[in-house]
């Protein structure tokens, strides 16, 4: 190629997303009378006769791209897809398959298989997501117990399974058996404890935690940097149309699966539920490559990813319906009815697969499944709403603190030492967690313990009540006085609450896979259990008070502390994520009862209202803004009175808009513009004088087409003229071959006038998924508004730094 700077400056991924523009949708008829050269019948006839005589211009004029060229219509990394173009392509493909199906039996079979392929893909995603979730659950449970000891019958047994197989296990001491040995017992050979045994167990607990965390952070850093964090902010951004190559790739899936087990087993204050959404979406993206219609269409692929996100939540909480609602409410940008059905099917298959694996041995999909039998009373709504207030306050506090810490990590030298940060936080967590039994156990086991409704045979410290068997009626235990075990557990839980609430701030966002669902639920469950036991004791000792007298008689089972723990968990999770409908459904699927929907709804709505009053963003939206992802939030309203003229580029003080003309620019001119600018697309006009709009062309398509034409079409040189018209005017016989690129020109770019209110422009960008629209004045091209311009304008109107809208 003649122009070396063009080759260097164009084929590299140098396109900035700030200037990435996209054609989408509108079909406006631009009359070009008086501006277009008169291609009437006489000139056309003269052109034909000219071509027919001696010099065959037709052989030198090629309607390029009659055959599709690899790369045309695709997207570079960190760019946004063209939703309208992708949907249009899929409609054209579907029409072609439908028309061909009438011609032969084979074509009809192809049509049927094409229609069935979506359901087959959902089946494969559900099976793979469920199998991986089962593997992660089993591995994490075993490695968590490995920090405390090992099973002599087989090192692959966790503590619970080891003692299940022991003939010497009693119901009261079901977690104690001779086959399970702590590390101190193995090293010293002594059965009894003591100071030495405690110190040995303490040391090895911290050592195992540091080893697991070190392996996790080194694997993430060395093989798949995208495997860190929760993944949900990035999934939301990808589903809105942004492209992050490798984020849903094979290496990311493998490393995320392995390091998620290591991170959870290390005892860090994080969960595996959020990252399971990322894992399921990786499965969906990889399996899309088996089917042509999903492999070659970015919009169709995002429908699959929405369903995969639902399958991820389904296996995380054992809540298929909640998973579908989570995908609809929290992560999806485009969610048609067809995707709703397929999401439900994928979530169903994933849950069924996990149930078949039975990772916890209790025939349940989660470790903390619980059933309550005591009805709640209307007067208990007061404490439930109080838990909602606590959840909202803690959610707002956590978001502000975590974002401040993550910003500090990005802007200081702290971010250069991710391994050191992970090791320090892990060491601090392990040192503080081991002395307290409620922080030493895994967070899922802690939640299970807190949700538990105490029975007569429960040996847990939380169930150490002073029993009066004379007042026991049937299976229900009456409210009883708290014993010494319950009183000691309250102090331990209060300390656990402080540790979980503060250490999670520094854990979420480190360079290891880290979910936020379980730590948030743990904080709320602890607070709820503390309040539940307080209410229970209040009702026991003061049953003659007016608030208890009408419904809580002596010897009755009035208060269920486990229910308060569940409501508190929902409140804190809602305060952090701002989920409402999907959160309530997930929680009632966990409990298996519809009776407690009202307390859950009251707590979830209260926590959202309180948290929204202190800050509008949930944790995932806050991280999207912190990372500068080009995500246009569909839930927020734009209410400022500005016009398209105020936002468009170029501004009055800037150089004029870079445009291409339809029939007067050479290959060299085009290459010069491409090498001198970083814009991702160019408007095409009739002439620079008229500025009447013809269409819009993407930079990537233009580069690929010119390079391919130079290689494959004879006579294309730097002085060859490029035409975006149907016909080219007659040229002298000595002129070089011309290049016709009308097929890659979008003739229906979306346009608005310069006086269009920005609230309408913002609405158009949200609902059509635009990346750019062109601005006209009296029918002539005036400027351009990109998605990044809209985001910067929204940030500016909210008194935020507009330059923060950059992919970081």
Automatic annotation (TrEMBL):
GO terms for cellular component: early endosome; endosome membrane; Golgi membrane; plasma membrane; synaptic vesicle. It is a multi-pass membrane protein. The keyword Transmembrane helix applies. SMART domains: CBS. Residues 648-712, 744-804 form the CBS domain. The chain crosses the membrane at residues 116-136, 202-227, 248-270, 276-292, 304-328, 378-397, 417-434, 489-510, 516-535. InterPro entries: CBS_dom, CBS_dom_sf, Cl-channel_core, Cl_channel-5, ClC. One of its GO terms (molecular function) is antiporter activity. It comes from the Eukaryota. It catalyses: 2 chloride(in) + H(+)(out) = 2 chloride(out) + H(+)(in). It holds the Pfam family Voltage_CLC. Proton-coupled chloride transporter. Functions as antiport system and exchanges chloride ions against protons. Important for normal acidification of the endosome lumen. May play an important role in renal tubular function. The CLC channel family contains both chloride channels and proton-coupled anion transporters that exchange chloride or another anion for protons. The absence of conserved gating glutamate residues is typical for family members that function as channels. Interacts with NEDD4 and NEDD4L. This is Chloride channel protein. Its main location: membrane. Belongs to the chloride channel (TC 2.A.49) family. ClC-5/CLCN5 subfamily. It is found in: Cell membrane; Endosome membrane; Golgi apparatus membrane; Membrane. Keywords: Antiport, ATP-binding, CBS domain, Cell membrane, Chloride, Endosome, Golgi apparatus, Ion transport, Membrane, Nucleotide-binding, Repeat, Transmembrane, Transmembrane helix, Transport, Ubl conjugation.
